[in-house]
């Protein structure tokens, strides 16, 4: 039976009752019970809200009669803990607090959200709590929270399990909008936000709160609240919880097995689908690089929803909801020259060095804007991931594409108004040399000369890929650094199995020569000879490719890029 893909689902009961595909992470519930006041940070759209909802339904005393319905098919349903359906649930989602331009308005919105929720809980748990004191809507949220927790303790009823999703959501808005004074006010000693966390801390001390689970993106707000909430246990960099959010390759393989069976997909397409999703959505290492890389779950579900609907590889592979605005990068780096420097460095090598000492569970706002912390800040935002003990890297092609878009945007490079004719020409008559020539004339020549003192072959490879993927995604997918026994290829054009260029595979190797290096060659660009070692290198890739795809129509190209002087394309 065909099931629906759970894209955009944040309610656990909805996912189960609608019988959507489900990757079971419930074993982590029992592991979390051993942790006091866990704090778990992950980038946006990594499944945090759905996980919070799962905890709510597992621990909510009101859902006791629904335990079998929601969890019988899960690991935790077969191995329930003593605490299931034992608590009153206070589930806070601070993304629902609307940010404003004054501390008074922000406090009003926060107070309104929290007080309305507490009053609603008074009613929904009336059978458990019995009579409860009134909570005046004009009281500060911390005051009403304290009254509510005191009443719970005095009633002798079940304690509260607190879940805070998006703890830093509205606070992060002040960072990106350059409203540092509001950030300072909201994290100051006497702020309403600090007072709220003080009451939560006190609730843990009195026992009215059984435990408290917090999720968010950045560690800076919780660090700046330390004196008010210094009881949290950070799990973000704990290897035991690295795979709690995000999907491993094994989990994705099992999911695809079900989808191919349920939807009657042609199994011969599975290899190309695997290739696409691994290159586009996999690659995240949050703790160890020798452990399984993780897929971004929302990105993967975005793809699978379209794939199941259309039975073909979708044109658009990047979920626009994932794209963090360039304003974040600009804000982190603070100065335009710093923004350009870090984007150029990443575009050149796909990596950036970092100091392991700085990759810690929490740091404050002043450190967030320190140049030494730039890579760490981008790591927490999900733009970079661990490559090894010394470098962070862009995790996949989706992030490479997004960073190239940032670079184009920053340098005001036009990628939209002049390319339709050249792309149509390529589809009508697939000629790589003509395509690259048009890319050079229309795209590369927009860059100021100073850029070419900093570029390398990765610059040409990545920008060429990004431009082609904008216009040719109906017909092609692309690989970058695909592994073969003989090494990693630079760039590959792969015809989609359901389109006119099916079985086409072009392997392209890029080589870069600076203007200075070219001047020493004492020849014209059109007379530059192809080096024998470059021929051997790309032919080695072809051997591996032919063994893997014997039916493929393979062509091999080497492209020499010479500063901003020009290029030469060789077909091997």
From TrEMBL:
Residues 6-226 form the AAA-ATPase-like domain. InterPro entries: AAA-ATPase-like_dom, PDDEXK_9. This is AAA-ATPase-like domain-containing protein. It comes from Methanospirillum hungatei JF-1 (strain ATCC 27890 / DSM 864 / NBRC 100397 / JF-1).
